[in-house]
Design a protein that fits this description.
alpha/beta; Rossmann fold; four-stranded parallel β-sheet; 11 helices; 14% strand
Length: 310
């Protein structure tokens, strides 16, 4: 597989994504086999935003592959303010074998990749969360039998709530893989037009059904329903300003029954009682949220192994 960076979901082909999913499952099944794949390698983790799952899953995942992780937190300020992003990229490339970046702006990720001489991995930005989406499809792949399917292309996956970086990555990766995808979000909270158009094009190429609607009644039959917080990290929006608007889009047992969905997904952290009920989040028969969280590590291990296998 030829990958220079892992920046956005639509920059990977269907075959590349399938290879990453399969590799993640292989590493998860036999971690000892891959324990030296990053031996002698150092990975810089550049984080503008706070994190639990992303930080821990990358740090421990790199260690499981035999590599060394160096965390650079918010003490250096926002990228591009203290010094140019291009200088960050060139300096870090002098020391590190790869750069993992969790940033506010996709422009920062793009500039890092443009000026770095080592692979750059997008650990989250305002437009995409490709590591999360990859982990999600690893999870779906593991659960095919429980969902009554034999391949990802048979799945009906819906995202309900606020269109954001997570839903952007999900819809682009679903469209690329050929997974039927439905996005239900309130008016004025739909995906940006270029991303929506790109997802449409990818779905046409893969043969996936792709639908976006503001009407929760248009959800239809689904195998899995996915949701995320209604207020993204770093947003100044007040909860009370959107609760009434988003209340009909809460994911709960009733909505699951209405859609015939067997499993619910959430990338966490969850605002319980808002976008998802506590009862559904904790439902061990339907909720796969912690399986998703674990698979963040294995998916990222697959990305790191692929990028640094050269």
């Amino acid at each position: 597989m030829s990958l220079s960076h892992f920046l956005a979901d639509d920059q990977c082909s269907q075959n590349q994504l399938i290879e990453l999913i399969n590799l993640a499952k292989q590493i998860k099944q036999s971690p000892a086999k891959y324990s030296q794949h990053l031996a002698g390698k150092s990975i810089v983790m550049l984080f503008e935003k706070p994190s639990l799952r992303t930080h821990v899953s990358f740090d421990i995942g790199i260690a499981k592959l035999g590599g060394h992780a160096l965390y650079l937190g918010q003490q250096n300020g926002k990228l591009g303010e203290r010094e140019r992003v291009s200088d960050y990229a060139k300096n870090l490339s002098c020391y590190a074998d790869a750069i993992v970046a969790r940033v506010f702006s996709h422009k920062s990720i793009a500039l890092l990749a443009q000026h770095a001489s080592v692979p750059v991995i997008n650990a989250l930005c305002d437009l995409y969360h490709p590591c999360q989406a990859l982990a999600d499809f690893v999870t779906l792949s593991e659960n095919l039998a429980a969902l009554g399917k034999t391949q990802l292309q048979q799945l009906n996956l819906a995202y309900v709530g606020d269109a954001n970086n997570v839903s952007n990555s999900l819809m682009l990766m679903a469209a690329t893989l050929g997974v039927n995808f439905t996005l239900i979000c309130p008016e004025q909270h739909q995906p940006e037009t270029p991303l929506y158009t790109k997802a449409q094009q990818l779905a046409q190429q893969s043969g996936a059904n792709f639908m976006v609607s503001h009407d929760i009644e248009a959800l239809g039959a689904q195998d899995v329903i996915y949701t995320d917080t209604w207020i993204s990290m770093g947003s100044n929006t007040k909860v009370n300003d959107i609760l009434a608007k988003f209340a009909p889009y809460q994911v709960n047992h009733q909505l699951m029954k209405q859609a015939g969905a067997k499993q619910v997904m959430h990338c966490q952290p969850a605002h319980l009682g808002e976008e998802i009920t506590t009862e559904l989040f904790d439902d061990e028969n339907r909720s796969v949220v912690f399986q998703q969280a674990e698979n963040r590590m294995w998916a990222q291990c697959a990305v790191l192994t692929t990028l640094l296998s050269k």
